[in-house]
Design goal:
Helices cover about 55% and strands about 10% of the residues. The protein is mostly helical. The chain has a three-stranded parallel sheet, with helices on both faces. Strands 3-5-4 form a three-stranded mixed sheet, covered by helices on one side. The structure holds FE2/S2 (inorganic) cluster and zinc ion (ZN).
C-alpha cells in the first residue's frame, strides 16, 4: 500500500467484505522508500488504516534493507526514480507475499488507470506492457505470487467517493518525483469525453479488454541467478539495479531480513512491524 486512496480503499474493501469474498486473512505490505516527509506521512496513514481495521502490516524500510533510499538508488544506477521505484516495489511486494505464505497480492489499480495505460501501450508500448495490465496474473509456486487487481471495474471517481464516505485518511503530500505522463493524460481526457457522451463506455471497454487478455500466465519466468527470485532473464531487474548502483549483488540478505520480519508478523498479534 502506498497510502493513497486506491490502495487504502482496497484494504478497507478486502477486510469489510472478506467473508463474502472467501478471504481468510489480509496482510498489509508497505515499502518506506526513504523519500523524506512524503515517505513518513505515507507510512503513517498506512499504519493508521491497518490499526483501524486490525490488519497486520509489514513495513519494509528500503534504506535499512538495502542501505539506500530510492533517490540514492536512482542516482547511483542512473535511472529515473519512478522506474527504480516500480521495480523495487514489485520485487518487495512479491517477496513479502511469498514469505507471508499469501495466496495472492492485491493491487489497487482502478479502471481508469487500467484503460489509460492499456491505450497508451497500444500507442507507444507493446504487447508485453498491455498484458501486464491484466486483472489476474497467475503465479509460480515458491517463486511468484499470483497478482490480482480487484478494482479493475471500478471508476476512479467512485473510489474517491468511497474513501471520502469511509473517512479514510490518505497521504496529503505528493511524491517529489511525481511527473506528468502527458500521453496517459491525453488518453484519459479522451476517454472522459467519450464517457460523458456515452455513459458506461469505459466499463464496456475494460470488460472487452480483459476478455481479450484472459488470465496472464507466467510464461518465460525463471529464477534470478543472483537472488533466486523471479526473472525473465538471467538476472532480475532488482539485482540489476543493485549491481549497477553498488557494484555488488544484494545477495540473500534482503530475503533473509524479509523472511524474519514476515515470520514474526505472521506469528504475532495484529499490529505493524517494520524493518
Ligand atoms: Fe515511487 Fe514516487 S512513489 S518514485
Ligand atoms: Zn535477483
Amino acid at each position: 500500500m502506498s497510502g493513497g486512496k486506491d490502495s487504502l480503499s482496497l484494504l478497507y474493501m478486502l477486510v469489510k467484505h472478506g467473508e463474502e469474498l472467501g478471504i481468510r486473512e489480509v496482510y498489509g505490505i508497505h515499502v518506506n522508500l526513504g523519500l523524506g516527509s512524503y515517505s513518513a506521512e505515507s507510512e503513517e496513514v498506512v499504519l493508521e488504516a491497518c490499526r483501524n481495521l486490525g490488519v497486520k502490516c509489514l513495513v519494509l524500510d528500503l534504506k535499512s534493507l538495502t542501505g539506500y533510499s530510492i533517490a540514492e538508488l536512482a542516482a547511483l544506477s542512473k535511472r529515473p526514480p519512478c522506474s527504480v521505484c516500480g521495480v523495487v516495489k514489485r520485487y518487495l511486494a512479491n517477496l513479502a507475499a511469498l514469505e507471508l505464505g499469501a495466496d495472492a497480492v492485491a493491487f489497487g489499480h482502478h479502471m481508469d488507470d487500467l484503460l489509460r495505460f492499456a491505450l497508451k501501450n497500444l500507442l507507444v508500448g507493446g504487447r508485453a506492457g498491455m498484458l501486464k495490465l491484466s486483472p489476474v496474473a497467475e503465479g509460480v509456486p515458491g517463486l511468484l505470487v499470483r497478482k490480482v487487481k480487484p478494482l479493475y471495474e471500478v471508476y476512479e471517481s467512485d473510489l474517491e467517493l468511497y474513501a471520502r464516505i469511509r473517512g479514510i485518511r490518505v497521504v496529503g503530500s505528493t511524491c517529489p518525483y511525481k511527473y506528468s505522463d502527458f500521453i496517459a493524460e491525453a488518453v484519459g481526457g479522451m476517454l472522459d469525453r467519450i464517457e460523458r457522451e456515452a455513459p458506461g463506455f469505459k466499463l464496456g471497454l475494460a470488460r472487452r479488454l480483459t476478455k481479450l487478455w484472459g488470465e496472464r500466465s507466467p510464461e518465460g519466468v525463471s529464477s534470478c541467478r543472483v537472488c533466486g527470485m523471479p526473472s525473465s532473464g538471467d538476472v532480475c531487474s532488482f539485482c540489476k539495479i543493485m549491481l549497477r548502483a553498488t557494484g555488488s549483488p544484494p545477495g540473500s540478505e534482503v530475503r533473509s531480513r524479509v523472511r524474519a520480519l514476515a515470520a514474526v508478523l505472521a506469528g504475532g498479534d495484529a499490529g505493524p512491524l517494520s524493518g
